[in-house]
Amino acid sequence: MNSQTKPTCNCQSKPEPHFPEQVTGMYILAKALKNVGIENVYGLVGIPITEAAYLIQGEGIRFVGFRHEQQAGMAAATEGFLTGKPGILMTVSSLGFLNGLTATANATVNCYPMIQISGASDTAMVDMNMGTYEQLDQFNTAKPLVKAAFRCTYAKDIPSAVYRAYRAAVSGRPGGVYIDMTTPALGEIMNREDADKLFYTPVDIYSPVAPNQASVDRAVEILTSAKHPAILLGKGAAYAKTDNKIKTLVEKYNIPYLPMSMAKGLLPDDGPLSALSCRSTIMEKADVVMVIGARLNWMLSFGKGKWNPEMKFIQLDVEPQEIDVNVPIAAPVVGDMNLSLDAILSALEGKKMSADAAWVTSLQEEAKVKNVKFAARISEAKDMMPMHHWTALGVIKPILESNPDVILVNEGANTLDDTRDAINMSLPRHRVDCATWAIMGMGMGSAIGAAVATGKSVVAIEGDSAFGFSGMDFSTICRFNLPVTVVIFNNGGIYNGIGEPLDKTTDPAPTTLDIRARYDKLGDAFGATTYYVQKPEELSEALKAAIASKKPTLIDVQLAADSGKESGHIGYLNPAPLQTIVV
Ligand code: ADP
Ligand code: MG
Predict the structure, then answer these.
(1) Residue 293, ligand 1, Cβ within 6 A
(2) Of 14, 231, 406, 570, which has the fewest Cβ atoms less than 10 A away?
(3) Which residue out of 239, 261, 420 has the highest number of ligand 1 atoms within 8 Å of its CB and is therefore the one to mutate?
């Protein structure tokens, strides 16, 4: 019927029926994440979060789908560390939740901001132990391992949970936060106009807290009266992006610095005031050490033992409970790192240091001697066939050092220790490794998180055992076509490939893996560029081509089975070997 023939109605006009547009909790979750500025979500879908992931992608947020939740979590944590914004991990209920929780717990321990959002069963059913689908009291399981936990039972609570989780993850000492996203909340239907009223923009979502002036003055007094001052840089200083302030402090006041592993590059490892190779001397001979964003934990002998017993520690940390943990701190400065450094720099203005002139020069002399020894170590390994760790690192070192903007991800035992020692970093936040817990199984996830969050090229140097924990997620690198090169040091085992079983078993020793494994063929399965290298020149060509290509690449480096020792540099932490007791 055309408009001309349309009958006119002379009946009284009725109001148009109003069918309000309806949305679900999943829509609210996607919008809340978008609203708070989230750009990437890492996860692995399944019941009950699959549709939520589609909606998240529909909001223009990148959804990076993994093969294992732990790796998705490592990616989220790495984004948190590198950007200061919480990385987001999405998991399914029960085992997916638990797999992801390992990474969230690791993030909490390392002070990386991240949020794990996990699908969860109906709480009413879990609480009554009805045996519902994937039943687990996830909220209470997560709680002891995170900074804060929220449970959404109703869709209306989702934006508030997301915003508060964000604030909790980044505020004070950063860490992992958990949101239990129950199936009823995800599936709840609301009118869109009611849902849209739930969103708001949180004010000052990261609100830095300034230290008190008396603590700053005390720190400055101690620092300026030191004869042998030094600065110890931790990954908290790297995280807080204090690069220029630390540079000013070090250069203007001529203070040598010693970086912890993930603080390497905050100032150049080979700079004139770098005391990287003089760690023992700093511990024994310094009289004042300013600890900036590091913890005096097992990695620093708890601030005792080797350390000068007269040492005065100044400690800058956002977490008041970090002060005096293992050793009394002479001058705690509690507050946001940037504000603390601002306050210290302005209090130092016009003041003179009392350091012995010979202090810095003696460290520089020592560094020179150590560098010669170090170069000898590399040249001694140069022609070893099959290659040893140091043969391969001698090749990799100049290539990575001439590509300083490549982010280095590194895990293993000997592969971790030797790579950390071998490769100088010159840019901040370009090294991500096993960190505080010294864990294995962060490699592929961290490489993916680093590449996605920064858009930069990544090289992951992996022990063969370490790679095994996350190897399947090499396929994620390929699916997302990320500029990541994975270098596997294959010495055929955990620590090395020469373990001998104690008993007359024909099974491999507990430490033995497979020296003949062709990891490059794993890369072939997913369409990566792959190399199997046995000689230094082959490794050199492969790595240069890989970095230049900016394409997923896997390089299997054949090492000797006897390259590497048990537990790498921390063998002393092993309990003493079994003794045969003769009665
Ligand atoms: P490392 O392993 O390099 O020694 P740690 O992870 O042990 O470093 O220590 C990092 C420290 O930095 C933690 O104690 C943490 O509270 C602190 N920190 C993290 N972010 C900030 C910040 N924005 N301001 C001040 N301190 C921070
Ligand atoms: Mg190995």
Answers:
(1) yes
(2) 14
(3) 239
